[in-house]
Amino acid sequence: MKIQKAAVIGAGVMGAAIAAQLANAGIPVTLLDIVLPDNPDRNFLAKSGVQRALKARPAAFMDPARAALIQVGNLEDDLKKLKDADWIIEAIIEKLDAKRDLWARVEAVAKKTAIISSNSSGIPMHLQIEGRSEDFQRRFVGAHFFNPPRYLHLLEVIPTPKTDPKVTEAFSEFAETTLGKGIVVANDVPGFVANRIGVYGIVRAMDHMVKAGLTPAQVDQLTGPALGRASSATFRTADLSGLDIIYHVSNDLGKATPDDEDFTLTPAFRTLVEEKKWLGDKTGSGFYKKTKDEKGKTKILNLNLDTFEYEDQGKVKVAAVEAVKGQPLAARVKALYAAEGKEGDFLRGVMNDGFWYAAKMAGNVSNRLQDIDNALKWGFGWEQGPFETMDTLGVQTVIANLEAEGRTLPPLLAAMKASGRDAFYQNGEIVTPEGQPTPYQAPYFILTDLKKDATKIVKKRAGASVVDLGDGVLLAEWHAKMNALGEDQLRTVQDAHKLVQDMGYHGLVIGNQGDNFSAGANLPLILSQAQADEWDELDDMIKQFQQVTTSLRFSPHPTVAAPFGLTLGGGAEFTLHADHVVASAELYMGLVEVGVGLIPGGGGTKEMLLRFTDMQQPSQRLGATLLPAVQRAFELIGTAKVSTSALEARNLGFLRDTDTVAMNKNHILGDAKRQVIALAPGYVQPTPRQDIPVMGDAAIGAIKSALHGMHQGGYITDYDLVVSEQLAKVLSGGTGNNRTAKVSEQHLLDLEREAFLTLLGKKGTQQRIEHMLKTGKPLRN
């Protein structure tokens, strides 16, 4: 049941995006759709699906070249091509008869070992395969992706009573490891897990909004990031999903579920769909509407549900949300749950509905509580699932509030009340849907699960820790805000190196399980020291930074970096110096220092020059033939290029061909640990290079000539020119050489440090840093 080739039937938005994700993972895929009767191109729909995926924003492909792995066809001429597929998934119209007809045709041509799946979001899987052979039913398992498949982690795997458990297991492993998905095994019930609970929450929020007299914009403030949920919150999510989708799903769920599960839509929502035909983003109007002002700037208008007119309401602020800004998630959740006035009444109503319903669904939509939590986190962008949120508030507190509202407790909560237990997750255990504690099993190698065992933490600082990963491998883990790099982070890497040597460990992993690997250096600290004229301290700090980044390569043991998400500036420099990199496929890596008027000062400039010169043939490392390598490094750093994926990071030169790309972010620490173990036997400590070819004044002259032309043409600003000239000086190996010379890595590091400090002392750089800290955007001075 190994999946090496796949086929997707249906080239609409979801089908084409699923095909793109398969291609991202390196899986050849056949994409089929129907033939349009009046179109001479019989593959028009499949071709259009690929083109749509190539143009999609956010991008569906991690590298546009991966589109070559998709072979297009149609269901009349090319059905026979399904015989080569190890996995076949349909994403066609949501009509039961259409799906049954398709499966009859697929069974006639598919090979007897192929796994068969439906991406249906609502039609029960067991109904689709009625009339099919026992063997076909044994190999059929639902696979419900969330849109867009590349970015939303959730995949609901839905076996039917006829599905072979080995098929479920094999497919889940493939989807988790190869496609990078977070797997939730759902029961074959209406709505499965995420839509059943998520749509219930959206419908109930609309009802509570009307009762509390709030607006959609106010509700989105209350149910967004302040509560640990996605910025699209409730009504923006509805617009993105399509109001017609929510309309049909809620109606279908209302018919398929008991009377106490209220999926009744408000009259205003029904008016939007049935009369106005305002369906959200797909029609340009929903609860919000995008427009442009007289200057052409995009502006968002809010729908007034009393008048059905769109209004410019400005920046909506809600007192309860403003009161909790800057607080940790747990404190925000507790404060919002206890808030007073109509905002508090709304939140308690919505949250209590969600708690009651999640507990009622335990054992119904899925057999594990963590699957319900994960479905809401991975499918809707929540930081905590409903059971984790109840733990934050105290389960007994939630139970008391539900009873005060006159609700009948679901069996799970009744069992929790009887036991007096105040948390679902506790001491490495989680309760079952019946309320009995059982050992918690993490879905992957996740650092947060290691943290439950304090003995795994070998050394701890406020912003970083050294953690024992087992099997003779240590982890240097950062856990500061945005993982900005300061003294704690640098000293922890030094601590880890010493512990590896003193305690006989195999080697070291640099990684963490935060939201991002590292957004770079601690800019506020750097700026304050520069403005205080603490130049000796800054020089020492940059020397220390260079020593720590380069220690990843020049230590007596292997080091492996595990970057993911934002890996910028200093975070990229750490990654560049590791012996090996295990990168998440979603890697946004770049040397972005020019945006704040600086150049990479932790070895990044040196490293890119070294990499690009080494890529050239030996005969090209002399004289003017060296210039393309210098120009490539200059362009990459000078434009602050950031990769949009690990595949692009490899194309740009940030990753080597030998580095590893993991589709699932949650696997990178485990994979990095295995790489350390593989590298350790016979590992020989490298020595710094002394033979890096540079062009000196010849390269500086060539780059300056191009820069001045760009400046005169208005493509770069006055201060861009200042920063770029310092960058050119480093990449050229310094001034004073009129012929090709060879220099050491330390020589380039010294030039980096000198250029960094020179720029930091200039008013233009300090203005750029201040602007970035204030606005989050670069200043073009």
Could you walk me through the main structural features you see in this protein, from its secondary elements to its overall organization?
This is 3-hydroxyacyl-CoA dehydrogenase. Residues 1-25 form the signal peptide. InterPro entries: 3-OHacyl-CoA_DH_NAD-bd, 3HC_DH_C, 6-PGluconate_DH-like_C_sf, ClpP/crotonase-like_dom_sf, ECH_dom, NAD(P)-bd_dom_sf. Keywords: NAD, Oxidoreductase, Signal. Residues 5-188 form the 3-hydroxyacyl-CoA dehydrogenase NAD binding domain. The longest helix has 21 residues, at 341-361. The protein is globular and about 85 Å long. The strands form 7 sheets. Strands 15-16-17-18-19-21-23 form a 7-stranded mixed β-sheet, sandwiched between helices. Strands 3-2-1-4-5 form a 5-stranded parallel β-sheet, covered by helices on one side. A 3-stranded mixed β-sheet has the order 6-7-8. The relative contact order is 0.06. It starts with 5 loop residues before the first strand and ends in a 6-residue tail after the last helix. Strand 9 (288-292) and strand 10 (298-304) form a beta hairpin. Helix 20 (487-503) packs across helix 22 (535-551). The protein has 31 helices and 25 strands. The chain folds into 3 domains: 6-185, NAD(P)-binding Rossmann-like Domain (Rossmann fold), CATH 3.40.50.720; 194-439, N-(1-d-carboxylethyl)-l-norvaline Dehydrogenase, domain 2, CATH 1.10.1040; 454-760, 2-enoyl-CoA Hydratase, Chain A, domain 1 (Alpha-Beta Complex). It has 781 residues and is an alpha/beta fold.
